[in-house]
Write a structure and sequence with these properties.
This protein is α/β, with parallel strands linked by helices and 264 residues long. It contains 8 helices and 8 strands, in the order βαβαβαβαββααββαα.
């Protein structure tokens, strides 16, 4: 069934003018320096920008990920103003590179439309993606401010549902997901930014500044740590299963007869 698509005129777009305050609060918080944040182990993390934005919008997030011990990769999709069919292949190239360089499954963090692209990439590369984090992404239906819907229709050249419906499908079993959203969102209806089958975390602040929000960064610290631990556990299980399989497949040499042993 196609997700419901319409505008929500009750969204207060003016709240997005306060994005600068979110950025300032981040810079003044201890989490920005990594205080109280679980340290990463070099796991690869690909970050994906939102609608109309480019990788430049993710510099704060990319730098923070590096400081707290992860290996971040910018998406490489350019400015996010084209159809998902155009940007997704570029994103999968970056995922393939991160996976090849680290030998590990990748964690994806996508802002707004970037979160849907991250989900689409996970659907295309489930063997190379461990976890997806969406930041204010409409993962369950589409209810947005009228101005944003008009821009999305211009972007896709058709009704938005036809552009993103496939990006809202459930992810493969081995790819986990977390939905982070803001209750003060002036762009996307917050109720569409979480799925019933997925853990979700609510923060306060603007939609635009979810990529520079102290509450988001604090949540990411825990989410990423748990995702890495889950991936290590999965690998341990797989290693144990392979070792068990080899043990079960092993066949001891048949015992030689007494004359054969004497001859030897």
């Amino acid at each position: 069934m196609s997700p419901e698509t319409h505008t929500n005129r009750s969204l207060s777009l003016w709240r997005e003018t306060l994005a600068g305050l979110d950025w300032m609060a981040l810079r003044l918080s201890g989490v920005y320096a990594g205080t109280g944040v679980p340290q990463g182990d070099g796991a690869p993390v690909v970050v994906v920008p939102g609608l109309f934005a480019s990788d430049a919008s993710l510099i704060e997030l990319e730098g923070w990920l590096r400081r707290v011990g992860y290996r971040p990769y910018l998406s490489g999709i350019g400015r996010n103003i084209e159809r998902p069919g155009v940007t997704l292949p570029r994103l999968t190239v970056t995922i393939d590179r991160a996976h090849a360089e680290t030998g590990r499954r990748v964690i994806l963090i996508g802002h707004s439309l970037g979160g849907l692209l991250a989900r689409g990439a996970a659907l295309r590369r489930p063997s190379k993606v461990a976890h997806v984090v969406t930041l204010g992404s409409p993962v369950s239906g589409v209810r947005v401010h009228p101005a944003i819907l008009a821009a999305a229709e211009l972007l896709c050249g058709e009704a938005p549902v036809h552009c993103i419906a496939e990006l809202q499908h459930a992810l493969p079993r081995d790819v986990t997901e977390t939905n982070i959203y803001t209750q003060d969102d002036g762009v996307v209806d917050p109720t569409t930014c979480r799925r019933n089958d997925t853990p979700s975390i609510a923060v306060r602040g603007s939609h635009v500044a979810l990529v520079a929000n102290a509450g988001v960064f604090r949540a990411l610290g825990s989410v990423l740590s748990e995702a890495v631990a889950a991936e290590h556990a999965r690998l341990a299980r797989e290693t144990g299963t392979r070792q068990l399989g080899r043990a079960l497949a092993y066949r001891a040499p048949a015992p030689r007869s007494w004359p054969d042993r004497m001859a030897a």
